[in-house]
Amino acid sequence: MFQRMRFIPFFLILVLCPRLLWASENQSDRYIHLSAVLYFYPEKEIKKPAILESVFAETRKIENFDEVKSISEITYTYEFVPVTKNSFTVPNVEYLRNFSRGMTESQIDLVQQSEHAVYIQVGYPIDEVFKGVLTFNINLYKYAQKTGAVIWDSETRELFSPEAWKEKRLAAWLEDGIPSISEQTVIHAYEGDIGIRAISLGMHKFDLPDIVVDNFEWSTNSAMAHLINLTGQSIMEGTKISDDDKILLDIEALSNTKLKRTISHFTSDDAIKRLDIEFAEGKWEEGDPENYLIELKFNDHAGSSLSEKQALALKTLFGYDGEAMMVKHNQKIEEASENAKKKLPLISASFNKGLAPGESIHVKAPFSTDSGSTEWMWVEVTQWKGTKIEGVLRNEPMDIDTLKLGAMVAIDQNDVFDYIHYRADGTVEGNETQVLLNQARQ
Fold it and tell me: In the prediction, which pLDDT does 330 show?
């Protein structure tokens, strides 16, 4: 695919490049400056500069970027450098287990022994960002393929095998003619001061701001990632931004077919697939990219708490696939529930010891309905002190007008019917009553 598609005319790509609210008025004096480090495995011979310069033959070469004020064409420089503990250090094994792409465990171990690398910098005018990124991506792949080096993307902080770089950074772009923001950037999510904070890395490549969503829970992490990618793609494709700082998100209007298909598969039948989302200037935190930040806000969405507002926005955009069940509890169901309750002290201890990133605990609890019956719904735990549990409601109530999906609620451990422990590695423990409930409904 790469060989067949590599000569797509650049003018087909450049038509989408937007000029946005956060861009400087003096565009002629600005250019994008990127860098990458290509590490050589220890058994590899260090390649001569002629190979690199042949790959970059159609790109202007300069000595360095130290005194460069402006650029009118794609420009590069490079330097073969030693890998030491103080400079151009290879990320450690633990980091690369999460942020390497297409590398085996043995390759991750082996690259730790790398002694040599090449540091490549590129600059390109801001009115040629797509051409600049694509040219750089292609040249890095060609050089890595010829030399066996692995590619460190300094913007997204990921290490790629040549094959993974081709698949992630090039294949879909060259086939579709439009880059997918999800394949050119990465999203980091971590425990913040209050709740989870997620931020994109790599939007600077396209002269666009990185995107932040703050104060949510791990159970909505996938939805928030899709929201960030949809926002980034929409901005890159030139979506309308209103005077009151709102971005119109429309899944069906996306030009990039791969990302459109990915997000569409995440939606349910009741999804509206359109949303006006407010944004404001983001607050920079240590570890964030050196780039302008915007933070997505949920102030315009109905709800008495931020979690309710977030839940409504995500439901509008992606839909809600929760299913209500009207089932009478039989003896087997009650016995399974009692077994789950016996495990709650251990589950509470695990929660209070501290959960890993991506890990969450949900408990099923009773809520009185407006008609006098009971709805059993799932609550994502945010606090567990003694028998008192607080959390976020993860079901849409059927018969409780005063309670909404995403509401902050308080329950008692003694009332808990079952639990689910979602682990960071993707495994799940608990919810043993569900199989019995499904059988009783049939």
Answer: 81
